[in-house]
Structure formats: C-alpha cells, structure tokens
Design a protein that fits this description.
With 224 residues, the protein is mainly beta. It contains two helices and 21 strands.
Length: 224
C-alpha cells in the first residue's frame, strides 16, 4: 500500500499543471476537518457551501462515509471531466481503496451545501475480526472486512437501544431532534442534535435513547 501511495503521489506531482495544485491528503484539505482522532478512527467532517470548490484531495485509507444532507454536487476525478452525482440524505458506504488511492475534488451547487462524514479506519479492532463475530443489528447497511454499518430507528414504541461490549463505534444522528447516549459504566451522557456525531469506545456498555415522541434515525459505524 505504501509503495502504491508513493507512486500515486509522484504521478500527481507530474500532473500539477493539469489540476492546478498539488493534491493533498483528505485530512489536510481545508473543508475536510478532522474532529476526532484516536488509534481506531479519524473522523473527518466535510462541509462545502454555495459554489465553493475543494482542493484536489487523496483518499487512501479504508473509510466509511455518509451524507447527512441530500447530496447533489459536482465531482471531478483527477484527470477526468466533471460529473454530477446525486445521493439521498443518509446514503452510506465503505471503500477499501485496495486497488489504490482515489483523488478528486468536489464543488457545491449555488445556494446548496455538501455535508458528509468521512471516517478513516486507522486500525482493526481484533476481537471483531474473529470467526465468531456477528453483526450488532439486522438493520445493516454493509458488512465489510474493516467495518460494519447500521441504520437504527428509535421511536415512541421503541425508545432505546443497548450496546453491550462491542468494537469501537461512531454514531451520527441523521434525523430527529435529539439522541442521548449514555455510557453505562461511567454514567457520562452525550446529547446529539441532528447531524451531530459521537464516538463510542470499545469494551463498554452504551445506551441510546430518546426522550420525546419524535422518531429519530441514527447511523452506526462499527470498527471490526
């Protein structure tokens, strides 16, 4: 992987005249802000507004992604023309970049915003790579070698969810007024508003709950 990244960066340097700037790692792109980094994840919050365009940036680390707003924007892969993807709010996926890094830039449409999370998976959580590993929930978005994604809905009829000693997780509140996440051991509570995130450490018990009658939808990414 390191050799492929080096070769790719050399090719990018030769193409500076084509793209107008030297591509940077995604976590160094000014509109992609790392908001939490630990041994397992680097959580990057990407926000691009109203005709603004990001720098060309490189995705090289296995990552999970989710759009927390409807995403209709312009995208240009290095060396190619512009395209216009269109994804619904809550679209989530995993990319291993096993065949090599991906370099692109994105531009927001007038009076619109690109709002997404890119969570780089910096290391595996050994226990969840064992043969006995099972998904946390049936509401899976994907199950991959390094991560699993879940779409969880809480409502008046189903107001709480308990997570009992799993791998590291990242919770992102996709829709709803507020989500409470309580660490059952420390009793520490976090209150998420819509589009907010929280990191759930491994080997601990967590309870997700809502206090109002309004339903919520939360995306959970689990490191394997």
């Amino acid at each position: 992987m390191k050799k492929s990244i080096i070769v790719f960066l050399i090719l990018c340097a030769l193409q500076i005249k084509v793209c107008g700037q030297k591509p940077v790692p995604v976590y160094e792109e000014p509109r992609h802000k790392p908001v939490l980094v630990n041994e397992f994840v680097r959580i990057i919050q990407a926000r691009i507004n109203d005709k603004d365009t990001s720098l060309f940036h490189i995705h090289a680390t296995p990552s999970v992604f989710v759009f927390v707003k409807k995403a209709n924007y312009d995208n240009q892969v290095l060396g190619e023309g512009w395209t216009r993807p269109n994804y619904p709010k809550g679209y989530a996926w995993y990319s291993s970049f096993a065949t090599g890094p991906s370099t692109h830039r994105v531009a927001a449409l007038p009076k619109d915003e690109i709002f997404a999370y890119d969570i780089e998976l910096l290391s595996n959580y050994n226990k969840s790579t064992s043969p006995g590993w099972m998904p946390f929930s049936n509401d899976t978005i994907f199950i991959a070698d390094k991560a699993a994604g879940y779409r969880i809905k809480l409502s008046k009829e189903n107001p709480k969810l308990e997570i009992d000693v799993r791998g590291p997780m990242v919770a992102i509140l996709l829709t709803g007024q507020q989500l409470q996440i309580e660490n059952q051991g420390t009793k520490q509570k976090v209150h998420l508003k819509e589009t907010g995130y929280a990191y759930l450490p491994p080997k601990e018990k967590h309870k997700l709950s809502i206090k109002s009658d309004s339903p919520i939808e939360v995306i959970l990414f689990e490191v394997r």
